[in-house]
Amino acid sequence: RKKNKNMYVAFLLPDLKGGGAQKMLINLANWFARRGHRCDLILFSGEGIYADLIADEVKVCQFNKCRAFQAVPELVNYLNKNKPDVLLSALYYVNVLALISKGLCQHCPTKLVLSERNHFSQSLKRLSLLKRMFWRGLVSRFYPNSDYIIGISDGVCDDLKTYLSRSVHKKIKTIYN
Question: What does pTM read for this prediction?
Fold first, then answer.
């Protein structure tokens, strides 16, 4: 991108209930917005303790869905209508929904950047066997469709690589907090 061109960046989160991923994306949205970029914070549910941290320059789009999968049609509509330059999401299940939604869009030029905040293997251990197989399959199937994947440490990136084909490894980069 040209240095003078402002970008349109959308950030996707399930809610504002707390946690490192939520705080990180809010901080990024605030940073971009305060530098003159158009920023949307897309939430499946607007509930949570971090609402007061969002800068006035950041537009909040709430889908008011209690289940993340219910937000897919609204996210598809959002992407088709708004066409942000970049959509940044965090948390493996939100990342998968972002990828599915973009795949259902018609001619959406939005670049998808996925953020991994935790070792995927550790996240899977907290799930039942059936859910573990389900999410492992979705991640290995849909993550290759992303434009970039950011891990917060080399360990997080290396762990994720064990679930993805070698051809996807070049998309994975470490960016520390």
Answer: 0.92
